[in-house]
Amino acid sequence: MGSNKTKTTQLNRGLKARHMTMIALGGSIGTGLFLASGGAIASAGPGGALLAYAAVGILVYFLMTSLGELATYMPDSGSFETYASRFVDPSLGFAMGWNFWYNWAITIAAELSAATLIIKYWFPDSSSLLWSVLFLALILGLNLLSVKGYGESEYWFATIKVAVVIIFLAVGVLMIFGIIGGEAVGFKNFTIGDVPFHGGFFAFLGVFMAAGFSFQGTEMVGVAAGESDNPREHVPRAIRQVFWRILIFYILAIFVISLLIPYTNPNLLKDGIESIGVSPFTLVFEKAGLAFAASVMNAVILSSVLSAGNSGMYASSRVLYSLAKRGKAPKFLARLSRRGLPVNALLLTTLVGMTAFLASLFGDGLVYTWLLNASGMCGFITWLGIAISHYRFRRAYIAQGRDLNDLPYKAKWFPFGPIFAFVLCIVVILGQNLSAFTGGQIDWYGVVVSYISVPLFLVIWLGYKWIKRTKVVPLQECELEPPARK
């Protein structure tokens, strides 16, 4: 009995370097690139879309280096909750943990709803409930298998997406020069109408918000660090590679789409999950004469949403387990299986994912939109917490007389990086739905849908602070000793 217990007091550390890179990469290449990029070009023009995605790319770079410094020094599956509790205030850690869990648990439900919409491209009269059950069982099965099972499935999901983007870029470049498709397009689509910038500042701001959603998921590497077999080497490598790959994939893909499809093309505005036939990737492939493009992109987008659901299940269950371990969630959620998996946390998260089944009762599109709106802001709140935690960690590290050269990974540009990320995240959060306040009359429905996560987060944070009487941890008292890795 004793040996069994020692086996199961720690999460299983089965993630390799390649898993770590693909977890962070797979989390951020998905429907934001395959679908929303078209709407971004139509709204703000090619120049506006490129600038918005580049700006968010820089924001994500600073967040990832901040997270990299924290996760290599203190690898922990609680990640954001642990760092905020130790370096800022236990009440902020409590709110961050529950916010992150809620965000990704709801994202599972949203991705399952999306998957049922996508599968109806091939089977229009099939049951939403049936597909939801099948996809949820698949995601739960992959997560119950082992941490390596999750890492391996995520590796292959991400590999499919990366391969499609690379093929797309190659085909696109050949079309630009007229090697495929007959005519050399050149830069003519950058000179029509009022491009490269179109729609003014508010259009740009709207695309900037959408780009922020597209990049959410990169922070997964912080949670995965707790189950990496060598976080001090794997996390910095994953972060360095991910930033350049994301920037190259997103910026180059949008550039290629902008050159090949004029921003005035009405199909670019159809970027809903049910409009696979008019994904900008599909439009480019069809223009190149690849007739099967829509079916291929449909399969890739299906793998994308399943990958996002898979990652959501993994990350949210780990943070829930971490909350339980620290007494911030019910104790039964801290139990591990013999294989070092937080089974109870996985099952509770699955129950929340089952809200996707409502899709079959209330109409797929409506539920999907509501679930997505409910969780949308939570990711930006997580980013805000990462920036604050890193700023406080570095200040505490210096205040306690430690040598920065001893850090296994040191974020460059401190303190500019976390301050820049903090300010930009505040702008994104406040500007979420400015159009609801313009036009003479306030759109209260729009305000509630867009901003509901902010008061919820504040209630959890300040409520815990009031009940537990927590205080901001003085820099000299921040707990800098990393937990022992058995």
From TrEMBL:
Highest taxon of source: Bacteria
Residue ranges occupied by any Amino acid permease/ SLC12A domain in the UniProt entry: 19-472
Alphabetized InterPro entries for the sequence: AA-permease/SLC12A_dom (IPR004841), Amino_acid_permease_CS (IPR004840), APC_YAT (IPR050524)
Membrane topology, from the record: Multi-pass membrane protein
PROSITE patterns on file: AMINO_ACID_PERMEASE_1 (PS00218)
Gene3D superfamilies from the UniProt entry: Amino acid/polyamine transporter I (1.20.1740.10)
Location within or outside the cell: Membrane
Bilayer-crossing regions: 21-44, 50-71, 101-123, 129-147, 159-180, 200-221, 242-261, 288-308, 341-362, 368-393, 413-432, 444-464
Keyword Transmembrane helix: yes
Keywords: Amino-acid transport, Membrane, Transmembrane, Transmembrane helix, Transport
One Pfam family matching this protein: AA_permease
Location (main, coarse): membrane
Database matches in PANTHER family: AMINO ACID PERMEASE, GENERAL AMINO-ACID PERMEASE GAP1
Protein name as catalogued: Lysine-specific permease
Organism: Paenibacillus woosongensis
